[in-house]
Structures are given as C-alpha cells and as structure tokens.
Amino acid sequence: MDQFDVVVIGGGPGGYVAAIRAAQLGFRTACIDEWKNAKGGPAPGGTCTNVGCIPSKALLQSSEHYDHALHHFGDHGITVKGASMDVAKMIARKDAVVKQNNDGILYLFKKNKVTFFHGRGAFAGAAKDGVHEIAISGPTTATVAAKHVIIATGSNARALPGVAFDEKLVLSNEGALAIGETPKTLGVIGAGVIGLEMGSVWRRLGAEVTVLEGLPNFLGAVDEQVAKEAAKLFKKQGLAIHLGVKVGAVKTGKNAVTVAFTTADGKAESATFDKLIVSIGRVPNTTGLNAEAAGVKLDPRGFIVVDDDCRTSAANVWAVGDVVRGPMLAHKAEEEGVAVAERMAGQHPHVDFNCIPWVIYTSPEIAWVGQTEQQLKAAGVAYKAGSFPFLANGRARALGNTEGFVKILADAKTDRVLGMHVIGPMASELIAEGVMAMEFGASSEDIARICHAHPTLSEATKEAALAVDKRTLNF
Ligand code: FAD
Ligand code: NAI
Known about the structure:
Elements: E1 2-9, H1 13-24, E2 29-33, H2 46-51, H3 53-71, H4 87-111, E3 115-118, E4 120-123, E5 132-137, E6 142-151, E7 155-157, E8 170-171, H5 173-176, E9 185-189, H6 193-204, E10 208-212, H7 224-237, E11 240-242, E12 246-252, E13 257-262, E14 268-273, E15 275-278, E16 282-284, E17 317-319, H8 330-344, E18 358-360, E19 365-370, H9 373-378, E20 383-389, H10 394-399, E21 405-411, E22 417-424, H11 427-439, H12 444-449, H13 459-468
Parallel strand pairs: 1-2, 1-6, 2-3, 6-17, 8-15, 9-10, 9-15, 10-11
Antiparallel strand pairs: 4-5, 5-6, 7-16, 12-13, 13-14, 18-19, 19-22, 20-21, 21-22
1,4-dihydronicotinamide adenine dinucleotide binds at residues 160, 189-195, 197, 212-215, 247, 279-282, 327-329, 359-361.
C-alpha cells in the first residue's frame, strides 16, 4: 500500500491547490479525483474547470463578442454584414479551453511531485494508529494510507423535487454549458448566479429567455442599489425575470418542457420552453465517501461540519471548498486549501471571510466585497457612502461602456473601508482594489490618495473614494 503524509480527495480548486501547497511544504502528497473527460481520461479541476467557472466564462466571452458584432461595432464605424454564430464551434472552443486547464493541472502535479490517482476515493473505515486508509476505485484501483486527509469533494446541482436532470431538456449547469444550438425559448428556474450568467449567454445568442425566481427580491445578497440597477439593465437587454414565483409541475415532452407556476400576484400560469435550466443552488458531494465511518460528522444538509480552521470532527481529517459551509466559490475553496496545508505544517494562516470577493459575470459585471448598505443598516453601523458613475469616466466612454457605478462604504468615524460594490465594465478586475484595501484595513481616504493611471476604469474607484468625503473631481 502506498504511504503518504497527505491524501486529498477531490481535485477541484480546493483540492488540487491544497495538494500543491502541501507538496511545496515538503509533505509526500497524493490527490485522488474521479472526473473523466469525454474519452474517459482524467480531467482534474473539478466543477470549476469542467462545468463551472472556466467553461461559463468561455461562453460568456464568445456570446459577448457576438453581441458586440451585432449591436455595438456600428458605433465604432465597423460594419459587419451577415454575422452569424456557429454554436458548435463556440462549444468546441470552450471544450478546448477546459482541456488546457485540465492539462495544466496534471502538469502542475508533476512539477510539484504530487501523485495523482484517477478514481473515486472513500474512507476504508476509522483510522488505525492515526493512519487513514483510502480505497480508490474507478479507472485506478488501489488503497493508499496517510496521516492527513483533506476532503475537497465539492458540490453538484440541486434538482427540483421530482424533476431529474435529463441534460437534454431539463438542464443542470452541465447541460447548460453544452447546448448544441441556440434554443428559441429558454426557461431558467432561479435568478441566482448561474441563472443570470447562463441566461445572458443564450439571450445574447438569440434565445428568448424567461427567468422564474422564487424570492420576491432580485439578487437579495447584493447591495440593494446595485441589484436595482442590474434589474433595470437586464430588463432593457430583454431578460424577462419574474420574481416571487412558485414553480409547480414540470412536464417534459419530446422536444419541449412545460412549467406550471403561480405568479407573485397569485395567478396560475404555465410556459413551454425548448430547454429549461434549473439553477436553484448546489448540494455537497459526500455520497459514497464513507466519511462517517472515519468519524467525520455531516450536517443535516450533507455538508461536512468543520471549525473555522477547516478541521472536521475526526483527527487529522480536514475539509475545504463547496463541501463545507460558506460561499461556494473557487477562490474561497483555494484559500481554504492553502490554509489547511499550511496549518498541517504548523503555520498560522488566516482566511478572512469578510474579504472574499463575489463576481457575477453578466454584462455589465457585478462585483462586491465586504458589507452591503442593507447589512450595515441592519447591524446599526454608522457609515458613509460614496459612489461614482462610469458615465463620468473617460475610459468607460472610450470603451463605449458607461453603464453602472462604483460604490464605497466606509465607517463614519474611522473611515475604514467596510465594503465596495461595482456594477459596470471589468467589475471583476476592479474589485481586487477593494479586497486589497479591506485586507490592509485601509480608509477611503487611502484609496482617494493613491495615484491611479489615467484613463482607466480604476479611476472610478478613486472617485468613489473621494465621493465618500463629498469631493469628487470629475462628477
Ligand atoms: P469541485 O470543483 O466541485 O471539485 C470537486 C472534485 O472532487 C470534482 O472533480 C469531483 O469529481 C471530485 N470528487 C467528488 N467526490 C469524489 C470522490 N469520492 N473521489 C474522488 N473524487 C471526487 N466560482 C467562482 O469563484 N467563480 C466563478 O466564475 C464560478 N462560476 C461557476 C459557474 C458554474 C456554472 C458553476 C456550477 C459553479 C461556478 N463557480 C464559480 C463555483 C465553483 O465552481 C465552485 O465553488 C468550486 O468548483 C468549488 O471547488 P471545490 O474544489 O470545493 O469542488
Ligand atoms: P444561487 O444560490 O446563486 O441562486 C439560486 C436561486 O434560485 C436563488 O435566487 C433562489 O432564491 C432561487 N430558488 C431556489 N429554489 C427555487 C425554486 N424552487 N423556484 C424558483 N427559484 C428558486 O445558485 P446557483 O445559481 O444554482 O449557483 C450555485 C452556486 O454556484 C452559487 O451560489 C455560487 O456560489 C456558484 N457560482 C458562482 C459563480 C460566480 O462566482 N460567478 C457563477 C455560477 C455559480
């Protein structure tokens, strides 16, 4: 039996990064991952690489280029005649991008001397003399032993009760990323991150998209001012979003799917779609892991119970990423993975959950870090707010992309930055400055005094910081 210091189960962003960091710290490390590519070969990278972050961003990019060619190139004096979309080619490009990332991870494992096992890992039982045994099945059959185990098995899409994903008509994120031709009509259940990103892709390609959301508020976790702006802009783009809807029976026919629902004002309605994406959240992957036999406690929803440091209830068993509490984000999983490896080495890393950025890659993008105005109000924190519209930013005008704004929230007394919220071009990149400011405990004045290159979108961040003190220069 192969002996390791650390075995990581799951090769998504939580697991593969934890394995690399553990190996860098001198641990003899193995990573087990079961994901298969179309040919049955290994495809490490988890949900993020295979059916999440990376492929969705590839499709968002392709569809945005198409949207620009149809609707925005004319503003720049570019005439495009007969623009058309080859969906099969777009999907093939997306698959190639995914493969580059799979291959990149296999290369990184080699470079860092992480032993990779392609298969499914499960605890053989309780640890004996402090050593855990993990049985591997699937393409590889083996049993490995290690003092430390990191569970990073991730999550999968939650189905509507009684409505299984067939990935032809009723699609999870997997099917939503592999639609072969643009549907005429697309239904989306859940106006969360996946619903809005995938809805945007297929709307840009010409689908008539209807989103049915259960909650009465749009993007409830997002700053209210940003959510209001987003709702206005998505409506203008033609995304039909119905809030406060109660979804009833979902019936699949040969080529279409019919959804019965009750509207917010109590009307019984139904709609028929060529495809239906169900994006109502995700559930942790713990089935078949036999974790309980090793003394690892699960909560009633199947998440692995961990403390603030990602320790489970079993000695030297850790868990990170989507399979534990907290936001289901790739970068959160990575930070936890690195921190666990460093803790095993006796170091004292810290992951500040208040400084984890969120990004929704719609157009315009939405990004935020820290507290929203509604959270600060509810907590009774006295704060100052400053915002700056992209309409008044030179670079945004040159780009032809002036929708949205940057908003900074700072403590009324100390001026410490408590949150940053962006809706607009490249919000995903701009938010890094807010994360940095918050990690360093910066004040809004600190951001305002930093020299930002001109003309850049980041000047909107500086101006929002100036606006906290009511002294914008360009608005
Ligand atoms: P996963 O990535 O789910 O990886 C777990 C891995 O473990 C998988 O490969 C799985 O096959 C394997 N596994 C499970 N059980 C076993 C077992 N018993 N033995 C062996 N292997 C096993 N997050 C972002 O931050 N930014 C984004 O833009 C973003 N976009 C997304 C878009 C979509 C459509 C989806 C669905 C998700 C997106 N996410 C995004 C979320 C992100 O993908 C997850 O938060 C992230 O992948 C979690 O990483 P993880 O390592 O915890 O788990
Ligand atoms: P989500 O939690 O973002 O949104 C789910 C939505 O569905 C919510 O608005 C919820 O109110 C609604 N809903 C739940 N049950 C419903 C029902 N029965 N009928 C109608 N509406 C219902 O979940 P989503 O979009 O599935 O994504 C899962 C997770 O994946 C995200 O929370 C996020 O952590 C991650 N992700 C991150 C991305 C990013 O960082 N850009 C992109 C995509 C996913």
